Amino acid sequence: MTDTRPVPPTAVRGASVSGVRLQGVDVARAVALLGMMAAHIGGIADQLDWSDPSTWSAVAHGRPSTLFAVLAGVSIGLTSGRATPPGPPTIGRVRARLAVRAAAVVGIGFVLIALDTPVYVILPTYGVLFLLVIPVLRVRPAWLLAIAGACAVLSPIVAVATAPAYADAGMVGQQLGLVYPVVTFLAYVLVGLAVARAGLGPRRRQVVLLASGALVAATAYVVGTVLAPLPSGAAFAFPGVPYAAEGSTPAEALAQLFLSPRDHSSTTVDVVGTAGVAVAVIALCTLVFDGRGRVAERIAFPLAAVGSMPLTIYSGHLVVIAMLPEYPESAEAWGWFALGSVVFAMVWRRFLGRGPLERAVAALASTVPMR
């Protein structure tokens, strides 16, 4: 018999299907947003070296954008039925709404690119990823992870194969597929969708996800560090593309292609490691803040407010950068941007609810009737 269960109204509005918004997911999203701001303007270190505390700020290289993408998959899962996506015809309407959201996000991304800031804008790639996951909304978590694994293996191959096409590309061309490769980031979105389908609510599941994510990340980075140590000059390699030093042997080049732990390099180890970190962060945030009572809600509110309007906060910080007479790049500048984002989000959320861009995109999506 055809499954015609409707998507619960709360899921359509963007909350979880249980009707309770997951504060931890919003907090994790805020961590991603503030981390991306640090990468843009924080003056962070070029390369992470765990033995040198002065380089620890480099954790913001690549990992926040990865977390952002994994959370995109989680959000798609939460708004399309969580652990039990509906069947036809409702799933068709959910897919249509997601396509409208994708088009809106791509449009906003091009507007932000037109501001001509020296920041690689992720939103066009983000919107394309929304479209790519539409066919797999009803696929089981295990198969989603299998497809994500295939993307992780193909990621460095595709990145290297397509890089020559961007040899003469300007800033706009570079950010449309080179810095944020679609195959690479599709793996992240699929992991997030699998997490949402597996269920984030139960405490036991959160612990399992936290342990699994941490173990996967640690294993990937240890394997990569041992088998493909970073060559000289790796800190200045172009983001989104694997790097092998000049004069490398074929074996060394192959190791750097698949196993390099370099941040934002699109290698298989980088994809697996950063995805593990993202899953662990999401699980930790939900474990700490969800279902812990009013006190935990109040503690989470500043960051949860930021995470509840990611499109607005992300776009807003680029608009502010474009308006400034000089490009800001220091820890102090990041502190002011972070404080401004938190204050704005808290006030807006307290008195007006959903963020302005989130409200506009939802209004466009709602032109597709659910019934």
How would you describe this structure to a colleague?
This protein is mainly α and 371 residues long. Helices cover 64% and strands 0% of the residues. Helix 6 crosses helix 11 and helix 12 crosses helix 14. The longest helix has 25 residues. The radius of gyration is 20 Å and the shape is globular.
Précis, in short:
The chain is mostly helical and 371 residues long. It is built from 15 helices and no strands.
How are the secondary structure elements laid out?
Elements: H1 9-13, H2 23-41, H3 63-78, H4 90-114, H5 123-133, H6 141-162, H7 171-175, H8 182-198, H9 203-227, H10 250-259, H11 268-289, H12 294-307, H13 310-323, H14 331-352, H15 356-365
Calculate the terminal CA-CA distance, rounded to whole Å. Answer: 19 Å
Taking the sheet with the most strands, its summary is:
none
Strand residues, percent? under 5%
Helix content: 55-70%
Number of strands: 0
SS summary, helix count: 15
Radius of gyration: 20 Å
Dominant shape = globular
Order of helices and strands: HHHHHHHHHHHHHHH
Calculate the mean pLDDT score and round it.
89
Tag the structure with descriptive keywords.
disordered N terminus, globular, 0% strand, mainly alpha, 371 residues
